[in-house]
Write a structure and sequence with these properties.
Layout lengths: L5 E5 L2 E2 L12 E3 L44 E10 L5 E9 L1 H4 L6 H7 L8 E7 L9 E10 L7 E3 L4 E4 L2 E3 L1 E3 L3 E2 L8 E9 L5 E11 L1
Antiparallel strand pairs: 1-14, 2-14, 3-13, 4-7, 4-14, 5-6, 5-13, 6-11, 7-8, 7-9, 8-12, 9-10
């Protein structure tokens, strides 16, 4: 990763080949690629198919459980570049998902619930609701950041700062959907963004950074 304080995540992931999985006007998760790519497939992220699309998520490695993030603040950061061929707007939301949802398998009802529009069900909590951005007809960027905390005693995921989202340098408002999520093990710290491309799908989308960082 680009930052030395990054705990987990990935960068420079092109969503463009997987845009066929998206429907304009529907809230949908960040999908794994449809074909092999650097780092994909992996035991954590199998390839998507049109029948069973696979959601990408940022999660800390199990080998740091009880250590680097236990009781320490951390930041979720998501940066996206996009190009639109027609007038379109983008809404970005952020979710926390329990380990039981992600280990149920790509063919299960639970996992299908995660990848439906919009994600909902047991073990899926919306943390932040974004606001639709202004119409765009050219290339642009969206950058989302928010700080959280978790500890192994309270097992509480708590929002530590308001979420900030900027599109091409302009602040976009967010709504805090859940201030805390209780009874979470370390393996439940899985973060999944969703996108709603209204009016029309963009032609090019690259996730330049989706990471968990120490602060």
């Amino acid at each position: 990763m680009a930052r030395q304080d990054t705990v987990a995540g990935f960068q420079n992931y092109s969503l463009t080949p997987s845009l066929t999985l998206y429907t304009a006007g529907s809230e949908q998760v960040l999908y794994a690629p449809l074909a092999s790519a650097p780092g994909f497939p992996s035991p954590l992220f199998p390839l998507s198919t049109s029948t069973y699309p696979v959601a990408l998520f940022a999660t800390p490695s199990p080998d740091i459980a009880g250590g680097e993030l236990d009781g320490h603040p951390f930041e979720i950061k998501l940066a996206v570049k996009f190009t639109t061929a027609a007038s379109a707007s983008i809404t970005l939301n952020m979710y926390q998902v329990t380990n039981s949802v992600l280990t149920s398998g790509t063919t299960s009802t639970t996992y299908a619930t995660l990848t439906q529009a919009s994600p909902s069900g047991t073990g899926i909590t919306k943390l932040v609701t974004g606001t639709s951005t202004a119409a765009n007809t050219t290339s642009g960027t969206i950058i989302f950041t928010q700080q959280y905390s978790w500890d192994s005693v309270s097992k509480l995921l708590a929002i530590a700062t308001p979420a900030t989202t900027y599109q091409k340098g302009v602040a976009i408002s967010n709504t805090q959907s859940a201030a805390t999520v209780s009874s979470l093990a370390f393996t439940d710290l899985n973060f999944i963004p969703t996108f709603t491309f209204t009016t029309a799908l963009p032609t090019v989308v690259t996730v330049t950074e989706f990471s968990i960082n120490r602060v």
